[in-house]
Amino acid sequence: MLRGMYGAGAGMIAQQRRQEMLSNNVANANTPGYKADQGSMRTFPQQLIQAVGTDHPETHGSRDVGTLATGVYMQERTPNFTQGDMRETGNSTDAALLQGGVPEDPETGNPAMLAFEAVNGDGDVRYTRNGNFAIDGEGFLTTPDGYYVRGEDGEAINVATENIDISEDGVITDADEDVLGQLNVVVIPDAENLVKEGSGLLNYEGEEEIVTAIGNDETDYQIQQGALEGSNVDANRTMSEMMATMRSYEANQQVLQAYDQSMERAANDIGRLQ
After folding, report:
1. pTM (2 d.p.)
2. Residue 55: pLDDT over 60
3. Taking every annotated instance into account, which residue ranges of this chain make up the domain Flagellar basal body rod protein N-terminal (predicted)?
4. Residue 160: how many CB atoms within 10 A of its CB?
5. pLDDT, tens digit, for every residue of 28-54?
6. Cα 163 from chain centroid?
């Protein structure tokens, strides 16, 4: 009976974590460049149940009854890096990255992901698909979190004014058509090793080398000025999944209550001296 309580409790915890993940997806449905999280449910290792105290000669006093599952858990949260839709903003400092052909991992078949590159004052490098850029007090192009947007040369891009033009390959020019820099778009070969840090920033924890997409024959992309890549969250589907998750949570809760009532009766009624 206790095993059943543990299984139902594990199911409730797993569904609660899944609900938190889905709620976060819905909350970021309008966040530029946001990539929806997906949860992977796994079962705990099964146990082999045996009946002891028997005379079965082949099992030395015990016999196999069967296996017993010990509950489920949400193993991991992995972002879905598919392309989001394009949304016109009209802001000259906004840049949407439209990903085309990219190389695939020869072992997994997963496609690489393209992203903008940014760095903070301490030299920490992050990646983002949120092209909602701004200009700080010193004229540098920055992300919403204040990270400096990196150019092809690896340096922060100083534009000084919002009166700029961004070409399809990321070259930034001013009103006099002087080149101010070029947005560096990088190729992340194993995107599953990207970790979210908020405001659309991603930290890479993989070991494969990240290279630039500029002049890379294996990649195809286009940058659209005055637009942003929207979130790839499917709000309708996510709401449906939230309702299903809640029903599953409630079902496990009812099972747990049934076990609790059975144990209460075993302790108070069956064990009572007549």
Report:
1. 0.76
2. no
3. 5-35
4. 13
5. 998 898 999 888 777 766 655 555 555
6. 35
pLDDT tens string 216-239: 888 999 999 999 999 999 999 999
CB 64 within 8 A of CB 48: yes
DSSP-derived secondary structure for 214-273:
TT-TT--EEEEETEEEPP---HHHHHHHHHHHHHHHHHHHHHHHHHHHHHHHIIIIITS-
Encoded tokens for 71: 């509950």
User: How many residues would you count in the chain?
Assistant: 274
CA 194 – CA 190 distance, rounded (Å): 8
Helix, strand, coil fractions of the chain, as percent rounded to 5: 25, 35, 40
Contact call for residues 121 and 249 (beta carbons, < 8 A): no
Residue 113 amino acid letter: M
Q: Quick check: 80 pLDDT over 60?
A: yes
